[in-house]
Amino acid sequence: MPTDNRVSTVLARRLGGELLRLRDAAGLTQPQAAQVLSATAAKVAKMERGWVPFRDPDVVALCKLYGQSDEPFVDGLLRLAKLDRERRKAKGWWQNSPDAGGMAEYIAMEDVASRVRTWQLSLVPGLLQTADYARALAVSDEYWQDPDDIERVVAVRMKRQHRLWSETPLQVHAVVWEGALRQEIGGPAVMGAQLEHLQELAELPNVHVQVLPFRAGGHPCIVGPFSLISFAEAEAMDVVHMDVIGSTVWVESAQESAVYRRYFDRTSRLSLAPLDSINLIDGIRKGLQA
User: Fold this and answer.
1) Rounded CA gap, 266 and 219, in Å?
2) How many other β-carbons are positioned within 10 Å of the β-carbon of residue 208?
3) Lesser CB count within 10 Å: N end or C end of the chain?
4) Statement to judge: residues 84 and 212 lie in one domain
5) To the nearest 10°, the Cα dihedral for 140, 281, 208, 178?
6) The domain containing residue 100 runs over which residues?
């Protein structure tokens, strides 16, 4: 997927999807749309996939060609185009960090997000990890062999956490399966410090931690972890991010992201209340010291 000049593609892909829907409804082809822009069909294809920034005259011209004259609707598309251009101009710290790797697009979205809801089955969420815990995970991954590379990976993960204390702090709601808290990543000392750190972060007003206990049994999110990323702009839909072996999956349709929200909410309701969650975390931590 192209990443040049891209800070966050969520708005561009939504705008491109709207233009594609309008073109299909009008029964026109990409070459026909390209003619009105004095461009190539390849440019129209890139626009519809959100790979390039949108010029206001192009958006207006395409809407006119497709027979879309509703002024509020067109104005909404122009606001999307403006927000997307502003995000592309932003220079995020991750752009100079090659060790962000495949996480670069996720970090870019997280950096401009207002809220992240994350469900984790086997790990403490990255935003809530200690350096030693993140280091132990990297060491266990055969992809990372060079110690210097591992330290750079850890540094990227730690820098992401600055959003928790920024002027506009990221709102985080983490639901974690009990098994992830009992898995001794890095050994008892590293895991104990990680659990203590989790307790401390849970005291922040913008961090909401819940534990899904073993006794909860079956639950809607049992198939795998995911994160829901939300943005302050009304025009921006929620985006779902999932890491699977060898690749990353993005869900960017409003209908599908709504399904993940429902699943997250149902699993949250099955989980312990925040205070009870912290008490369970504290009990597990003390058990490591015994």
Assistant:
1) 8
2) 16
3) C
4) no
5) 60
6) 93-289
Q: Which CATH number do you get for residue 39?
A: 1.10.260.40
Domain membership of residue 117 (yes or no) is yes
In the predicted model, is pLDDT for residue 157 greater than 90?
no
The reply to whether 231 and 246 lie within a common domain is yes
141 and 241 inside one domain? yes
75 Cβ contact partners less than 8 Å away, ≥ 6 residues apart: none
Q: Could you say which DSSP state residue 105 is in? A: H
Total structural domains in the chain? 2
51/9 Cα distance (integer angstroms) = 8
Amino acid identity at 83: L
Helix, coil or strand: residue 234 = coil
Q: Which residues are 173's β-sheet partners?
A: 117, 208
Work out the angle at residue 25's Cα, subtended by the Cα atoms of residues 20 and 29, and round it to the nearest 5 degrees.
60
Same domain, 100 and 22: no
Lowest mean pLDDT among 71-75, 80-84, 86-90: 86-90
Q: How many helices (H) and strands (E) does the chain have?
A: 12, 6
1 part of a folded domain: no
Residue 104 is given by DSSP the state H
Q: Is residue 229 in some structural domain?
A: yes
DSSP 52-75: S---HHHHHHHHHHTT---HHHHH
What does pTM read for this prediction? 0.77
Inform me whether the pLDDT recorded for 6 exceeds 90: no
Strand ordering across the sheet containing 171-177? 207-212, 171-177, 115-120, 226-230, 239-244, 247-251
CB 22 within 8 A of CB 70: no
In a domain, 5, yes or no: no
Residue 272: closest CA among 221, 211, 207: 211
